[in-house]
Specification:
The complex is a heterodimer of chains A (about 575) and B (about 260).
Chain A (H helix, E strand, L loop, with lengths): L2 E10 L3 H13 L6 E5 L15 E2 L10 H11 L6 H20 L14 E2 L9 E2 L5 H13 L5 E5 L1 E9 L2 E9 L5 E11 L20 H8 L4 E2 L4 E8 L4 E2 L3 H4 L3 E3 L7 H4 L9 H13 L4 E3 L4 E7 L5 H7 L1 H11 L8 E10 L2 E3 L11 E3 L4 E2 L12 H21 L8 H16 L7 H15 L6 H16 L14 H25 L17 H4 L1 E8 L2 E8 L13
Parallel strand pairs in A: 1-2, 1-9, 2-6, 9-18, 17-19
Antiparallel strand pairs in A: 3-5, 4-5, 7-8, 8-9, 10-17, 10-20, 11-12, 11-16, 13-15, 14-15, 15-16, 20-21
Helix pairs in contact in A: 1-4, 1-11, 2-3, 3-11, 5-15, 13-14, 13-15, 14-15
Chain B lengths: L2 E8 L9 E8 L6 H12 L18 E4 L2 E4 L12 E5 L6 E3 L2 E2 L2 H9 L9 H5 L9 H11 L6 H5 L1 H5 L5 H13 L6 H8 L13 H5 L6 H14 L22
Helix pairs in contact in B: 2-7, 4-7, 7-10
Classes of the chains: A alpha+beta (about 575), B alpha+beta (about 260).
The structure holds flavin-adenine dinucleotide and iron/sulfur cluster.
Iron/sulfur cluster binds next to helix 5 and helix 7 of chain B.
């Protein structure tokens, strides 16, 4: 018999979305519901700590900002693929969330009069990015984690790796998981569940994401029969630092830093004569890849990565030290370069995934009793391209909404039970199939090969031929004998969970590529060289991918358009 | 391409009587961090090496370990800066070893929680249903800011001689955070906090070795926090009483928000 524990609500993921959901459920249930948060890393280590720049909300209508403007900017940024009813709800909820975090102790940066400060961010008409120095996500995580410790009815499963979602009779029942410390396999049952496992950025090795950002939760939902939505839309930020992919923020270009190619030419003059280096992210990333493809990039021998230079000298040493101290420290600590003295090697980098587990406006998935929130979910407010500062915001809003919905649902439900064979099968898959499995292929090399293929054919520029090749490669990799584990110890066996991660990455990568191959248009972050224009007649719709025996089966759903008819995007 | 030796302390409680050092040869590359080197060894030389890591940019606090004898974050340490022929990675002191470089931080998190790391207020309705922000001047914020940078990595606690002697001592991390919430203009729980701290195992145990502040990768200076905290415990005076915390902003008369 598989070991079993029970809760009222089980939240998978302790990022901004998961923690916000836990607190909401805890407080509206007045201590009555038993809420558990399960996370594969220690709770406060979730990827969310990396967010730097800001969280968007309309706080100062008296200065001219408005909910309509936030809504319009978001819809326009999404290249009209966002669901406008969801965006409207989002912008209305956000101001309250900023104040809520403030009340719970978040050190938001302040104006001289003591009110919360805001700043400019790409794609917004008003300066509505709320910030706390350049550590927004870190402080949001700290505030939510610390506040969660106040509630006696929130408990944590720290360093437990979820392997599958248990569903029976069309209803959510719980999850299966491995406790890292002991290596024990358990089923954790609950009346209601929320998947908040974050984005899938590690499908690319060159990513601004934490190493833990693998699509485990998305893959588990997909295997449980829940569709993934709009997975082909992936945002590439122009400046990831070679070789780690650590983000070099746009502020560097905002302060006067310029991109140059190997001839020292300021190439953005050719691609965006007006906005230059400050054109929108997709425009700059495409320009950079064109320069590299046409032979005007440089190569980092150690990592094999092509790059361009981000020259900070126009800013001046003094100003770099004063205003960009964090970036200078990053460059010195992670690359050994002082940007006061030499340019930084950068290239476009995987930064955000717009797609995720398909949900309705309340964050509910198609599986009864299961919700999804944060980057793992696709509501969708981001459509084909998210605006910076909207994703931490989305985590807060749908963390709150799903926490509340799950609490209401769980309060009226009997304790969950589930046929024993479901978990037994999963245990067999993992322990007989992988822990005791045999094979000659190094799973880390399968991961490397997948990441290499994604970077080659599912990157900034895509073509039908390239994507077909990517699909073939992924299917070949799935056939390799990598399902085995060299680490024979049960204790803290990351080798085993790494293999499970790679398996999930292959499944989700296949969805990304299949969706991109089918979508014969260019919209937002998805750019097809063979179909360079947006095609509203045929493609103003969401992609839904269902797991099938031979890979994903694609379906489509309509986009909610309420206030703003699709128009061409100009910045 | 040049190479270097990476020694990793290995220990599996199920099979090993005591820890041993295993040596790996790692190809050097420009900008390589100790975390990069460990992941190279884990991915291509020995899949069974256990370590924690996540953000690789010194924000998540996962990869604290002893590197060449000193507590550091592996992601925040360049191989080159260590200068020598060899890199030696060992688990943090003052914590039980789970396996290899992974230590048990459960008690560390519990101590943080025991000192109430959250805002305590008397206006319960406003606290959970905010109408606007609590006002706070930039200079008021500045008083606590440095202490808010803590990433809960545990380096300070692993370096603390008092923690080594007394398992009940809350340790520099928890106490620096106690100071941070005590001094936050929004907090009204000062009296309760000081009471919790004024115990035999509280502030009085620290004898200012200062090693916590020396190893902190985030410039928190927990020793300073403890020192300042002591003054409040000594005087018994909370900075604020119930109802004296920062006020909620309200629109000036005659305006609409
Ligand atoms: C460098 C960088 C800067 C950014 N800056 C900004 C910004 O300024 N503003 C903004 O709005 N957004 C920003 N973003 C985006 C934003 O940080 C993310 O979208 C957001 O933090 C995602 O949070 P989340 O709660 O959805 O999930 P995450 O924080 O990714 O958390 C995922 C959780 O799921 C858990 N988990 C995953 N798999 C499993 C499993 N198998 N078993 C158990 N647990 C599991 C993890 O342990 C973790 O707790 C930035 C992103 C990056 C990379
Ligand atoms: S005070 Fe510094 S060393 Fe101690 S846990 Fe916090 S960040 Fe780490």
């Amino acid at each position: 018999m598989v070991e079993t524990s029970r809760h009222d609500i089980l939240i998978v993921g302790s990022g901004i979305a998961g923690l916000r959901a836990a607190i909401e459920a805890a407080r509206i249930s007045n201590g009555k519901l038993d809420i558990a948060v399960i996370t594969k890393v220690q709770a406060m280590r979730a990827h969310s700590v990396s967010a730097e720049g800001g969280t968007a909300a309309v706080l100062y209508p008296e200065l001219g900002d408005s909910l309509e403007s936030h809504m319009f900017d978001t819809v326009k940024g999404s290249d009209y693929l966002a669901d406008q009813d969801a965006v409207e709800r989002f912008v209305k909820e956000m101001p309250g969330e900023i104040y809520q975090l403030e009340h719970w102790g978040l050190p938001w940066s302040r104006r001289e009069d003591g009110r919360i400060a805001q700043r400019n961010f790409g794609g917004y008409t008003y300066p509505r990015a709320t910030y706390a120095e350049d550590k927004v996500g870190f402080f949001e995580m700290q505030t939510l984690y610390d506040t969660a410790t106040k509630y006696g009815n929130i408990s944590f499963y720290q360093e437990w790796f979820v392997t599958s979602i248990l569903a029976d009779g069309g209803e959510f029942k719980g999850v299966t998981a491995i406790e890292r410390k002991s290596g024990n396999f358990s089923q954790i049952l609950a009346k209601a569940g929320i998947i908040a496992t974050g984005g899938s950025g590690r499908l690319y090795s060159f990513a601004t994401y934490a190493y833990s950002s693998t699509p485990d939760g998305m893959a588990a939902a997909y295997r449980a029969g829940i569709p993934l939505k709009d997975m082909e839309f992936i945002q590439f930020h122009p400046s990831g630092l070679i070789p780690s992919g650590i983000l070099i923020t746009e502020a560097v270009r905002g302060e006067g830093g310029v991109l140059v190619n190997k001839d020292g030419e300021r190439f953005m003059k050719k691609y965006a004569p007006n906005k230059l280096d400050l054109a929108s992210r997709d425009v700059v990333s495409r320009a950079m890849m064109t320069e590299i493809e046409e032979g005007r990039g440089m190569k980092d021998d150690a990592s094999g990565l092509d790059y361009l230079n981000l020259d900070l000298s126009p800013i001046g040493g003094q100003k770099i030290k004063e205003r960009l101290s964090q970036i200078r420290e990053i460059a010195i600590k992670f690359r050994g370069i002082d940007p006061v003295e030499a340019p930084l090697p950068v290239r476009p980098v995987c930064h955000y995934v717009m797609g995720g587990i398909d949900t309705d406006i309340d964050g509910a998935t198609k599986l009864k009793g299961l919700w999804a929130a944060g980057e793992a979910a696709c509501v969708s407010i981001n459509g084909a391209n998210r605006l910076g500062a909207n994703s931490t915001a989305e985590c807060l809003v749908w963390g709150k909404i799903t926490g509340g919905e799950a609490a209401k649902y769980a309060a009226a439900r009997p304790q969950a039970s589930v046929p024993g064979e479901l978990s037994a099968l999963e245990e067999k898959r993992i322990f007989d199939g992988i822990f005791h499995g045999k094979g000659g292929t190094n799973p880390y090399e399968v991961r490397d090969a997948l990441q290499k293929e994604m970077a080659k054919d599912a990157f900034v520029f895509r073509t039908g031929d390239g994507l077909s090749q990517a699909l073939r490669t992924i299917r070949e990799l799935k056939q390799k004998d990598f399902l085995h584990c060299e680490d024979k110890s049960r204790v803290y066996n990351t080798n085993l969970s790494d293999v499970l991660e790679v398996e999930g990455m292959l499944a989700v990568a296949e969805v990304v590529v299949a969706g991109a191959l089918a979508r014969t248009e260019s919209r937002g972050a998805h750019f097809r060289r063979d179909y360079p224009g947006r095609d509203d007649k045929n493609w103003l719709k969401h992609t839904l991918a269902y797991a099938g025996p031979d890979g994903p089966r694609l379906d489509y759903s309509t986009v909610a358009i309420t206030k703003y008819q699709p128009a061409e995007r100009h910045y | 391409m040049s190479e270097f030796k990476l020694a990793v302390q290995r220990f599996d409680p199920l099979t090993d009587a005591k820890p041993r050092l295993a040596e790996y040869t790692v190809p050097m590359r420009e900008g390589m961090t100790v975390l990069d080197a460990l992941l190279y060894a884990r991915d291509y030389l020995d899949h069974s090496i256990a370590l924690r890591f996540s953000c690789r940019q010194a924000s998540c606090g996962s990869c604290g370990m002893k590197i060449n004898g000193r507590p550091r974050l592996a992601c925040y340490t360049q191989v080159e800066e260590l200068g020598g022929e060899k890199v030696v990675a060992q688990p943090l002191d003052n914590f039980a070893i789970v396996k290899d470089l992974v230590t048990d931080l459960e008690s560390f998190f519990t101590k943080h929680k025991q000192l109430m790391p959250y805002v305590l207020r008397s206006d319960a309705q406003e606290l959970d249903h905010p109408t606007a922000e609590y006002l706070m001047k930039p200079e008021e914020l500045k008083k606590v800011l440095q202490f808010t940078y803590c990433i809960k990595c545990g380096l300070c606690t692993s370096a603390c001689p008092t923690v080594a002697m007394d398992v009940k001592f809350p340790g520099p991390q928890a106490m620096a955070q106690a100071y941070r919430y005590l001094m936050d203009e929004r907090d009204e729980g000062g009296e309760k906090r000081l009471e919790a701290l004024d115990t035999a195992h509280g502030v009085w145990r620290c004898h200012f070795a200062g090693s916590c502040s020396f190893v902190c990768p985030k410039g928190v200076d927990p020793a300073l926090g403890i020192q300042l905290l002591r003054r409040h415990v000594l005087s018994g005076k909370a900075p604020r009483k119930q109802g004296e915390g920062a006020k909620v902003w309200s629109a000036p008369a005659g305006s609409t928000k």
